[in-house]
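Q&A log
Question type: sequence-to-structure
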Amino acid sequence: MAKSVSSAPVQTGSIPPQGVASRHAAPERWDKPFSADMQEVDVDLLLAHPLFVATDPRRFPASIPLRGILKNDARVRRFQRGEIIVRQGDYGHSAFVILDGAVRVLLKEPTAEQLGHRRQVRPSVWGSLARWWRRPRFAEQAGNRGAAAELELTRDGEARIFLQDVPGVLAPDRTALLGTGEMFGEIAALGRTPRTATIVADQETQMLEIRWQGLREIRKYSPEWKQQIDRLYRERSLRRHLAETALFWNLSDEVLGRIADATRFETFGEFDWHHAYHRGREAGERERLEQEPLMAREGDYPNGLLLVRSGFARVSRRYNHGERAESYLGKGEAFGLGELISGWQGQFRPLRHSLRALGYVDTLFIPTAVLEEHVFPRLTPAQLATLTQGLAPEPAAPPAAPEANSFLEFIVAQRFMNGRAAMLIDLDRCTRCDDCVRACAATHDNNPRFIRQGPESDGVMVAGACMHCVDPVCMIGCPTGAIHREGLDGQVDINPDTCIGCSVCAQSCPYGTIQMVALHDAAGLPVVTEETGAPIRRATKCDLCIDQPSGPACVSACPHDALVRADLRSSENLNRWLHQ
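Response status: OK
Response body:
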């Protein structure tokens, strides 16, 4: 696709531009490879490496050959001693295999200054005015984005960041060593989650980096790779996840190892859960509840602790002939702990709530016997009292105020708790002036990135704008990685240069917040494919105005404070805004 191509939304009733449509080849997955430096000879060397000797190329389909994956979805990189490869908390889109050399996993995280953390730098007011002055004539002008300021870029366009105080930070007692043949970063790449550790080159090291699209295909068609990734997760990520859980903070490595050995992985729901979500929206309340996989049932006696590793789960209680949501659990939260402690103290109690999976939930199940041996005896009386609080006998009749939970029920039913930056509009304050829409259009080259309509509850609308989800399922099927996490804050963004217009992300988004827009060239003429003459389209969505000094333009432009971008995981902030 030519770099001069731009896009504009197709509008009903508009008069098409005069002239001949601009014809271009339809964009394809590997139009922009991961690295332009990968050659056939590099692929030959990789295929001869012990890492791929046991991988049978015949298992791969002709449309996605193993050679094609290595040439287009992988690259070989060199790192110097002290150079940071990945940082804890950053969002990752690739996995690494050590071809030669060694790296160190930092067991104790250094300071932000030592790690070279850079927050997203918003432009100045003058920079925004200059951007507005240079705005293109037509919407979505391609090629108008530059590299971030104040970053020293290499020839592959990435910033090189070196660790400060290398000898002190890389001390053996503060790190774990990984050598040739080891893999890391695969869990964050495949699971759309932040990196769990900082990893630094211990010496001059040669690495194979595979972006997650290629890793997904290799794992799919090579059982050996799948087994290796599953093994690495149990050996590394599981123990680290347990260590980061407050309940296990004071435990030794030996005890954590025993708990990890007894822990069982359990998953509920579908990984690409948007399919089930769309089915559930068309069903009634009872049918929708039945479609949510049951993880634990109210009234049963617990036989272990459920620890949520990723995803969300509904906590509900029986109410009349159905169930009423009381809360929801997210990453790092536990279910059934109070009842388990009460049973250990000799007062056996059944579960007070049911737990159902909302979408895809990844959990760890820790048996009761393990907790009673290694965890509960180490808790102080004050901690035990806090954890068992609220286990007193219940009143005979349930509270008769379902309205108090109606908005929570709405959020859970629509699975909006997945949103980190949902656009909420107070319909009592909103005058429908459309200043928010005009501000968005002015900021994004005359193409608004949201729709001022959406589901409503208790006078609040959740507008059709990207929520930058905790679990962005829109990223699952993207063949090129055009839709990705951006920056330390994890905004979901779309790279217009690598988007091929396949519309997979738009179809996968559970909330319908990604729009496909038709492309036009610099003269305003429609861009069509050479083969069929069909319009070429590109995905667009809200980017939270990350390049604006004042933040989201829609919020700044609202004259009545009727609009807010809210993290729906935080009920406290949400309630404060609702009642202000």
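Response note: The domain at 33-118+148-236 is CATH 2.60.120.10 (Jelly Rolls).
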